[in-house]
Write a structure and sequence with these properties.
Elements: E1 4-10, H1 15-21, E2 28-33, E3 39-43, H2 45-54, E4 59-62, H3 63-74, H4 80-90, E5 95-98, H5 104-112, E6 116-119, H6 133-159, E7 161-162, E8 168-170, E9 173-174, H7 177-190, E10 193-194, E11 199-202, E12 223-227, E13 230-231, E14 240-244, H8 251-270, H9 277-290, E15 296-297, E16 303-304, E17 311-313, E18 320-324, E19 336-339, E20 342-345, E21 349-352, E22 355-360, E23 363-366
Parallel strand pairs: 1-5, 3-4, 5-6
Antiparallel strand pairs: 1-2, 2-3, 7-8, 8-9, 10-13, 11-12, 12-14, 15-16, 17-18, 19-22, 20-21, 22-23
Length: 376
């Protein structure tokens, strides 16, 4: 007999909960897949009618009615733990598997009540990593919207002028990371997607891969734009990075950009079912090193070179299984992964290019259609 599965989380915050139920909620509710495979949710009156329309589960239970039944059963005002315990035992569940993100306080209380809980070591729904055709279509849509946002951001850089101060200017004012990010976010919102910490990092700021960027953008230096919005209707994410330069990039930046572009080709040529994510990552590192870009501490002790993973799964989470990195992972048909090599040096700035590909039996297909170019 299968082990019961239990989740307590908000649909908006937990990809596992949304995957299990198809229900976005700002507040936590309970999901139970019992030993027979019947899928239940226990949810408040505030959400129950919407759940009846939207949720793809077998049985929907009213939180308030269950609380009243629990109170009638033991004549005490039930707290959340006693209510959940009652709900589980009414369905013959004494043992359940929970995600590693399950609330610790609730877990402690359920265990004291005699419910045995085991947290998964890793992915709660392994099948999430292999995308269905409908999921691939949702990711394509997210990438299309992401590309529109990229077009808006790079369009502002193209429209800018190089001032005598070495900065980019637009409409008589220095063009800032904040303005570019704001225009990208506004466009994404109009298209039904929510921006999440969009990166517009120029110059030395680009040498820190997750620096959002701030202040005026400089001419003749690389500018990294990394956009990863979530489509509100579907819950799926897009992810894309481009690096551009307004003016004349240095020869070193040109070589770095080309080495990174070729590194993407090195990775994509190796992506297929059964391929080792670690081996692909190693091939990308070897390519960048052979191109003359060494990874290691710089003179001031900062990180330099290529010091992050080559890629990660993307879907209902922006970072999910599998990985193309130091962490070993075997690719399967249906995996959707990013390919995002980069080079970072404080005295050069940063260069990163990122596409999203679908692993197929014959290799991989690039789902990202937005073009790559350095000089604008």
């Amino acid at each position: 007999m299968a082990t019961a599965k239990l989740i307590y989380a908000a649909g908006e915050a937990s990809a596992d909960m949304y995957y299990a139920t198809g229900l976005f909620t700002p507040d936590a509710f309970l999901y139970l897949e019992d030993q027979q495979g019947t899928r239940h949710i226990l949810i408040s009156a505030l959400e129950i009618d919407r759940a009846r329309r939207v949720a793809h589960v077998d049985e929907i239970h009213d939180w308030e009615k269950t609380r009243d039944a629990c109170h009638a059963h033991d004549q005490r005002s039930p707290n959340i733990a006693s209510l959940v315990t009652y709900f589980l035992r009414q369905r013959g569940v004494e043992v359940a598997e929970v995600p590693g993100t399950f609330p610790l306080g609730l877990a402690d209380l359920l265990r004291r009540a005699g419910i045995t809980l085991t947290a998964t070591d890793g992915i709660f729904f392994p099948q999430r990593a292999v995308k269905t055709p409908a999921e691939v279509a949702a990711i394509r849509e997210a990438l299309e919207i992401t590309g529109q946002g990229m077009e808006v951001g790079i369009g502002l850089i193209i429209a800018s002028k190089i001032g005598n101060d070495g900065l980019l200017h637009l409409d008589g004012q220095p063009l800032t990371s904040e303005r570019v990010r704001g225009e990208i976010s506004a466009h994404l919102a109009r298209e039904g997607a929510t921006a999440s910490h969009t990166i517009v990092a120029g110059g030395e700021q680009g040498a820190d891969p997750h620096e959002k960027g701030s202040g005026p953008l400089r001419a003749h230096w690389p500018i990294i734009l990394d956009i990863f919005p979530r489509v509100e209707r579907t819950g799926y994410w897009g992810d894309m990075s481009r690096t551009v330069c307004k003016g004349q990039p240095s020869e070193r930046v040109r070589r770095a950009w080309e080495a990174v572009r070729q590194a993407q080709e090195v990775a994509c040529a190796r992506i297929r079912p059964g391929a080792s994510g670690y081996a692909i990552h190693q091939a990308v590192r070897d390519h960048l090193t052979a191109a003359g870009f060494v990874t290691g501490p710089t003179a001031d002790g900062r990180q330099g070179g290529f010091f992050h993973g080559t890629g990660h799964g993307v879907g209902l989470d922006i970072h999910e299984s599998p990985r193309i990195s130091e962490q070993e992972s075997v690719l399967q048909a249906g995996h959707v992964v990013t390919v995002e090599p980069g080079l970072y040096y404080p005295d050069m700035g940063g260069v990163r290019l990122e596409d999203v590909v679908l692993v197929e039996e014959s290799g991989c297909t690039n789902l990202t259609t937005y073009p790559k170019f350095l000089e604008v």
